Amino acid sequence: MARGSVHTEPRGWLWVNVVEGGDELSSHRSKQEAVDRGREAAASARTDHVVHDRLGTIESRASYAEDALPPAG
């Protein structure tokens, strides 16, 4: 799915999740819903999730990449 990080960012009156340098994954009316869906998408794709504020500044970043996960067992 994702070839790059998943970004949750504002677009007009909506909040969207987009793959860095690629396609829009989803759009939502609330920021929290977009953040939740973006986190799920990033975890599923084992990539980073980057959340932006209304001004476009990075608010938070989390990594779900294979090398960022704790060892199993």
Give your account of this protein's structure.
The protein has 73 residues and is of the alpha+beta class. Helix content is 21%, strand content 38%. It is built from 1 helix and 5 strands. The protein has one helix at residues 31-45; strands at residues 6-11, 14-19, 24-28, 48-52, 58-63. It is globular and about 35 Å long. The N and C termini lie far apart (27 Å). The model has no long low-confidence stretch (mean pLDDT 89).
Topology of this protein?
Elements: E1 6-11, E2 14-19, E3 24-28, H1 31-45, E4 48-52, E5 58-63
Parallel strand pairs: 1-4
Antiparallel strand pairs: 1-2, 2-3, 4-5
Note the main attributes of this structure:
73 residues, alpha+beta
Short description:
This protein is an alpha+beta fold and 73 residues long. It is built from 1 helix and 5 strands; from the N terminus they run E-E-E-H-E-E.
Share in β-strands? 35-45%
Largest sheet: 5 strands, mixed
Question: Uncertain regions: pLDDT < 50 for 5+ in a row?
Answer: none
Q: What is the CA-atom radius of gyration, in angstroms?
A: 12 Å
- Strand order, main sheet: write it out: 3-2-1-4-5
What pattern of helices and strands is seen along the backbone?
EEEHEE
Net shape: globular
- The class by helix and strand makeup works out as alpha+beta
